[in-house]
Amino acid sequence: MKLILALSTLIMCVVCFVQPASGDVFLCDYLGYDYTHPNPRDFTTPGQFYEAVGDVPEISSAAVDTDYDNNWYTFHLISGTLTSADTIGGVFAFYHYDGVGDDAGTFHIYEDPFLGGTAADFGTFPPNVTAPSTFNDGSLLLGATFTSLQVMVNLTNWTASLNGTLQFYCGEGWGSLPCYEGWTFAGMGVAQPGIPDGYLWQIDGEVYVEEIATQNSSWGDVKQMFR
């Protein structure tokens, strides 16, 4: 019963991707495609990982220096190990990934120059010769580990909600971030025409820090950096 109540609460929170509130601190948005590995379209087998690759169309210039006129910005997401998989009423499936140390899931953003760099190529049926390799072959701009990651799938219309928390720990732009912990990772996955063969959904979302009353006294300084 506790599991059902917890999952029901999670459905209410993440079944729809909600844009961050105006007072939240925006870091970046992401747009790409996802897949499971090593088995395609399999969330439930032990040892499975959820992965995604794509573009980072916008990064907050107040947080990290970027040069979109001369560089591509891409991301590579890989989950931790699958820890649970449950279905509620045949409508929603809940998948939770977790890990510590080398098993922790990661979200990395890369900067790759137009001149001398490699254009990203999704290919088909990932992992393949171009994905994820052409999405993570630039300089690591920001690196984060997931402290949690959940995927909620609507089994009736085959859409998904992504919800997690990130802790940044490395990358050339890491030192300029206003804070390293507590970043929200949120987005939606939609099955639509044009998705390359072998991928699950087109995923679209954002990374941001929520403005909440329990933040410590330095939160005002953080907000001021983004005004």
Explain what this protein looks like in three dimensions.
The protein is mainly β and 227 residues long. It has one domain (2-225). It has an 8-stranded antiparallel β-barrel. The chain has 2 helices and 10 strands, in the order H-E-E-E-E-E-E-E-E-E-E-H.
Strands of the widest sheet, in order across it, are 1-2-3-6-7-8-9-10
Work out the helix count.
2
- Please describe the biggest sheet, giving its number of strands, its sense, and whether it closes into a barrel: 8 strands, antiparallel, barrel
Element order: H for helix, E for strand? HEEEEEEEEEEH
Count of structural domains:
1
Question: What overall geometry do the principal axes of the alpha carbons give?
Answer: globular
How confident overall, as mean pLDDT? 84
Helix content: under 10%
Number of strands: 10
Strand content: 35-45%
| Head-to-tail CA distance between termini | 45 Å
Unreliable parts: 1-19, 213-227
Q: Compute the CA-based radius of gyration.
A: 17 Å
Structure classification: mainly beta
Features:
single chain; 227 residues; mainly beta; globular; disordered N terminus
Summarize the model shown:
With 227 residues, the chain is mainly β. It has helices at residues 2-14, 219-225; strands spanning 25-37, 49-59, 71-78, 81-88, 92-98, 106-113, 139-154, 159-170, 183-190, 202-209.
Itemize the secondary structure elements and their pairings.
Blueprint: H1 2-14, E1 25-37, E2 49-59, E3 71-78, E4 81-88, E5 92-98, E6 106-113, E7 139-154, E8 159-170, E9 183-190, E10 202-209, H2 219-225
Antiparallel strand pairs: 1-2, 1-10, 2-3, 3-6, 4-5, 5-7, 6-7, 7-8, 8-9, 9-10
